[in-house]
Amino acid sequence: MPDLNQSSLSEIVKLIKTKKISSLEVTNHFIKNIKKGKKLNSFITTCFDESLKKAKYFDTKGNIDGLLPGVPLAVKDLFCTKGIKTTAGSKILENFIPTYESTVTNNLWKEGAILLGKLNCDEFAMGSSNETSYFGKTINPIAKDLVPGGSSGGSASALAANFTPATIGTDTGGSIRQPASFTGTVGLKPTYGLCSRWGIVAFASSLDQAGPMTKNVEDCALLLEAMSGYDQNDSTSINKKKESYSKNLSTNIKGLKIGIPKEYRVENMPKEIENLWGKGIDILKKSGAKIVDITLPHTKYALPTYYIVAPAEASSNLARYDGVKYGYRSKKGKNLIEMYENTRGEGFGDEVKRRILIGTYVLSSGYYDAYYLKAQKVRKLIKNDFDKCFRNIDAILTPSTPSSAFKVGEKTNDPISMYLNDIFTVPVNLAGIPAISIPAGHDNQGRPLGLQVISKALEEQKILNIAFSMEKDISFKQSFKRWWE
Amino acid sequence: MSIDKNQVKKVAKLSRISLDDNKLQSLSKDLDSILSFVEELNKLDTKKTEPLTSIVNKTLEPRKDTINDGKIKDQILKNSPDKNEEFFIVPKVVE
Questions:
Q1: How far is A361 from chain B (nearest CA, A)?
Q2: Number of domains in chain B
Q3: Can you tell me the ipTM of this complex?
């Protein structure tokens, strides 16, 4: 039997298709890994009985022609799964059992995948370290004192530790790309509208996108192909033909023009990250790409814009948690209003409260123009920056994060220092365009570092190809031991 | 612009979130630092800029108003913290 800890998603698909291994064997392997991995706290819920039942069924009667035939997968606990608890990492949804399935997860099951369980995340995807989850922090498999990043931290941790051959996360301001960078894995945030938002617990609706998190670029293309597609249940879903990203994957990037934005050369950027960026540029040049200096002048306004727009949308999205139809309800309170206030006071964690309060404040009468409207105008300027650049270039190369994975507890007392983590990832969400983070090296403490490739809307194939080409030349290797077993 | 404890109290009321005095104190401090962080935007002149209204390049299409699910009352009620066979139960609203 092949060593499944060394196998990619694409390899596992091939092994199952050629009957070299059964779905049940693969499923058992990952369940065994998960059971030995409790120290990482990457799962909120597991559903092994169901997974095994489905794997057995697949081996006798399953359709081998799907993109993910009989492949067990765990997903971020932000996707509604029918009949299986979906918490969004919050106390307020501790016992919520959806009556329906999110479109994106349903797409995976239609291609033959089998659910292993639901992965830990920052509460309502609000956080960059997976420390705001009501179900406890997740640990980075790289080292026991490091955060895996966030908000899709459980996903990144489980993937890097081989608890799942691939996974999906959501990215509102960097929540796929930053944890991918922190764990030495690949993560892609698609164009806004490429993957349906239906059935995903909403955080900031104009920014939220689901995307694949995988061990390599080929897997990323395959999983994006499986999860994306038009959905009439999401009014912002883009109606276009499904693409075969994995079939069209190519390392030929000759002649492509890659922009290097000078504004991303931020103050106090660690030397190692700067060197890594330089290494990426050299690799692209060697593959025949042309390097162009570009300017995205409004980059420094992206984070302040994000921290108005995202909380504003969150404050209205999270108004639905009132303790009436589902979720936690406080026992305290003499009347309906007091019941609401106590339910939300007890049900939400601090970061979620911060964001609801900020959001309510910037939308409130007298402050709307100064904050929210202003931010939407700046958002337009940020989008214009990208639009202008992409008239002359094919893609942009930047570091994924301003630092490698930091220590547990290091940034929890200072919200702003936590927010600064997303400095390179947030502009892409504001502009609605796609970006991929690939592992590109380690810092001197052995922590992974990532590079990000950005393109204009709907050019996922292009950034996948660039990443695929770079991956071959970088040949990144994970260097940690399975210390948690 | 900065935000004081009374303003935070008011916003908490609008947000329907109860906060005890300790929490109010610490959240006021956080909110104040977040708001001064976003002040950065005031350095930009946006008088001639139109606000972004949609990130997707399309008009939202209407769909037919038809019923395509239903008859799952029991499943829906199951998730409620307080219910009887037919209804969600809430504290008394009308005196």
A1: 6
A2: 1
A3: 0.95
